[in-house]
Amino acid sequence: MINLKRATEILEETGKLVVDEIIEVEKLKELLRQKGIETRFESTEGNDYLLLTRKVIGSMCLFNTASLNIYEIDEAEEKVLIGLNNDEPTWNPLVYVYVFDNIDSPLGEWVSVPAVRWADENHRLDQFMRVGV
Predict the structure, then answer these.
(1) What are the domain boundaries of the chain?
(2) What is the pTM of this model?
(3) Of 31, 63, 92, 129, whose Cβ has the fewest other Cβ atoms within 10 Å?
(4) What is the rounded CA–CA span in Å between residue 85 and residue 65?
């Protein structure tokens, strides 16, 4: 059995916690709720899991059945938590790309724009729609 503090750390790091590892599940859920973190239960392959319910803060439509969702941006580490549809999100590097801007300047100029590297492509953050912020 692990203590509540360690269970909270595991859940925040991985987004997933095997319920068998902890007895005081309801106490853990309440502790997380007080911190503003929502969770849900899921059973797969004979195990019960407590999963982190992540909130989408940005979304970009890729095509009619897929969207790329941003859950968190860590500016200090320069990484973005991003996932396709409801798949498990992963941390991806925050990169900077140069684009030609002729809107703000009549002659145009090259400007650096933040982007996320996902599936071997750079997706500019200014192309994502803000959600629930």
Answers:
(1) 4-53, 58-130
(2) 0.65
(3) 63
(4) 9
